[in-house]
Amino acid sequence: MTAAKTHPISPLDTKSAAPFYRQIYDRFRAAIASGVLKPGDRIPSARALANELGLARGTVDAAYSLLTAEGYIEARGQAGTIVTPGIEARVPVVLAKPRPIDHTEAPSFRPDSIRPFQMGLPALDAFPRKIWARLGARCVRAMQPSGMVHPSVFGLPELRTEIAAYLQVSRGINCSPSQVFVTSGYRHTIELIAHAVLKAGDRVWLENPGYPPTRALLAHLNISAVAVPVDGEGMVVSDALKLAPKARAAVVTPAHQSPLCVSLSLPRRLSLLDWAARNNAWLIEDDYDGEYRYVSRPLPALKSLDRDGRVLYAGTFSKVLLPSLRLAYLVVPEAQVERFEQITQAFSGGSPELTQSIVAAFIADGHFARHVQRMRKLYAERREVTVAGLESVLGRHVQIGSQPGGMHLILRMRGRRSDRRLVSRMLQDGLYGEALTDWTAGGEGNPAVLVSFTNIGDQRTAENLGRRILSLM
């Protein structure tokens, strides 16, 4: 046994929030892990170290007790205290510093910030917080032990029932609760679909331009995306048939094409359904904001026309309620329920039951339908004032197209300007925007900037924000 070594304790930090016993513990553990103190080395007695550091004996005893409990040191009675024999020094691992989030780069398609023009956010100031709080308290009081265990991976039965009833009335979809699967978001929905009905090497039609995360997710699953052009009537089905007639599926946004906001025409809806039926293929309908149409009543879902069980309908609560809920849903054909139950059991952990209970109560009590109606009226007003404000400032530099619905505007660039460069400058200035070329396969196409109007309350605010954009051009 070696004699007691000079202790490897640097001066304690009197300004640190960590108590002295913890600082002593940390320093001894680091010395042992780095090999400064080796197995069998004797360390100072608690009394001696307390005297040297000017601390109470109990402080050092607390540190030594923790080191002993974790196996770093051993007390040998009159022989003193030593580093545990056989303990191996560990070469400290130098961890790469996490790359800081650079908000001046291309924007995330799931940002956690709140910026002017930020895409994907409903009107946060108009959310019925008091009603939500009251329902939340009611659901907590009603919670039983059965609601405290693992949630059903298929979704809370009450919520599945409410979703099925809502879809029948609002979207023309005739489905039973067993056909509804609650997911944690669009990405989770697409993942379940891919595992259930697709396989590596399959080809899938995607709208071009279209939602970038869909392309990325399919690529990770080794599924080939076929970029299909979009015109004023939605996906050009004739082009899709030339590009990949034997594709296994098509992902479409019929109500408001994402991001161009055009609606898929009836002839093309029927063409897609006919193609899917004849080729035993699947149509994945992403109805992300179908409730928000301003020129007429919301269009019926593509799923409402499905007579052959080929449409998988994906909806979400992110746009109509809050993204932070992380709740979405998938409606599958009756014949596919068992298959999706198997896949869901394998790949899903279920969503928090309390959150689902609150949403179910929100729908059942009629608040959801009233909220959608209020938001439809509010968004129509906010879109009008935002367009007016931006056009008064930017009219010479951008063209703002007329759209039948949706939650964002398309600022089409006049002249030879880069939408990516402008978006980068907007991010640096604390604004938000997304470049249309980032939504286009190959990064080509007509430049435009996508901005949301849902959280812009009046024309003056829009004008002030337009001036900030103008200064960045």
Provide structural commentary.
- This protein is an alpha/beta fold and 473 residues long.
- An eight-stranded mixed beta sheet has the order 4-11-10-9-8-5-6-7, with helices on both faces. It has a four-stranded antiparallel beta sheet with strand order 12-13-15-14, with helices on one face. Strands 1-3-2 form a three-stranded antiparallel beta sheet.
- Helices cover 38% and strands 13% of the residues.
- The protein is globular.
- It is built from 14 helices and 15 strands.
- It has three domains: 95 residues, Arc Repressor Mutant, subunit A; 243 residues, Aspartate Aminotransferase, domain 2; 94 residues, Aspartate Aminotransferase, domain 1 (Alpha-Beta Complex).
Q: What are the secondary-structure elements, in order, as H or E? A: HEHHEEHHEHEHEEHEHEEEHHHEEHEEH
- Give the fraction of residues assigned to helices: 25-40%
Q: What ranges have pLDDT less than 50 throughout 5 or more consecutive residues?
A: none
Order of strands, main sheet, comes to 4-11-10-9-8-5-6-7
Mean pLDDT: 89
Task: Write a concise keyword list for the protein shown above.
Aspartate Aminotransferase, domain 1; Arc Repressor Mutant, subunit A; 3 domains; globular; eight-stranded mixed sheet; alpha/beta; 473 residues; Aspartate Aminotransferase, domain 2; 38% helix; four-stranded antiparallel sheet; 15 strands
